[in-house]
Please model this.
Amino acid sequence: MIKKTIKKLDIDFFYEKMDNGLEVFLVPLEFKKIYATFSTKYGGKHKSFLVDNKYVDVPAGMAHFLEHKMFEMESGEAPFEFFSKAGVDCNAYTSFDQTTYLFQGSRNFYDNLNYLLHYVQSPFLTDENVEKEKGIIEQEIKMCQDIPDYVLSEKSIEYSFREYPIRHGITGTVDSVNSITKESVMFCYNTFYHPSNMFLVVCGKFDPETVINMVKENQAQKNYSKKSEIVLAKYEESDEVMEEKIVIEKDVSIPKVGVNFKVNIKGLNISRFKIETYFNIFRMAKYGWYSDLTKTLHDRELIDHELFSSLVFDENYALLMVEYDTNNIDESVILIKEKTLVFDISAELFERKKKLILSSYLYSPEQVTQINNIIMNSIISYNKFDENFMEELEELNYEEFKEIFEKLNFSHTSTVIVKNK
Model:
């Protein structure tokens, strides 16, 4: 077990790779709360991959479907029941890039951690329970389609990308889910839930030696053959969006608008971590509550509330999404596009946003959860955790930021409008 220190935060962590390939990150902290996550590098966008020199394409929504099925045990006791009896919270979620199973709480920690590893590595699939799950997820999909904000974000991604499978969403469609079989679910489980494609992160108050020995003992009881590296399909994505404007009718009192900027970042010769952080600074400076753009929109009575901005990164592209409610669709869209195309962020504003990001790491009240998420997100995004990330944050500079954003092309946009029927 290797001991390292997260620089600037002065937090020690321990790392070890199991014989079966499972990576373990342990962060002992002086907080009674414990937060444990067990993740696979398998999410909604992983639809096509190489098997026996042939690409296999699986239905959209498969990773999310598999997450649901992991909560059904042959013993009949669902993991939610086990953790509830143990006095801790448990959950799971699927994103575009990962599926994560977790629990948080300090009671019965070692038993809970052992069980977390057990249930995620013990799939129980039958033709009957797979068919039953289709109906449950079909209802979930239909419920989500009745949530205007969900539809706005989903369609913003779908109509911005042409080829990337991220455009198919995480839950899939009713048709894609209904095409799933027990055999295809098990095939994806065996491919992506092998320990060599998974990692465990535990933060909180515990003894690292005790935990690592427990994990070793747990994994030694399971027989995993060596797995070849997973090769995902590559896609040639265009700078052009799929649709420049789409109007969707839903029951809303005020129209909802998403203005989406699709930006090619392939030529940037800096780390992905720096690219994503620079984009976050740009997003905060441009669309934050106190930004010039937000003030102008309010002064012209184009919006009543704030702008909500978010980012999605996939291979060579960044998708910057700006969402808001308005009764003045055309004027507000034109203004947001115009202001985004103009680089007007000062060095002073850049430094303020940079300090805000740094302070969020230094003074977080939820340090146990935050450190876990930092490690987890780093592994998913960059396939490694760099304990020097705070130093890289401090090295961010305005000159580089300005040079990058003056060159990037923000002219490829897709506008999604959700308005009343």
In short: Residues 2-232 form a domain with the Cytochrome Bc1 Complex; Chain A, domain 1 fold (CATH 3.30.830.10). The radius of gyration is 23 Å. The CA atoms of residues 128 and 138 lie 16 Å apart.
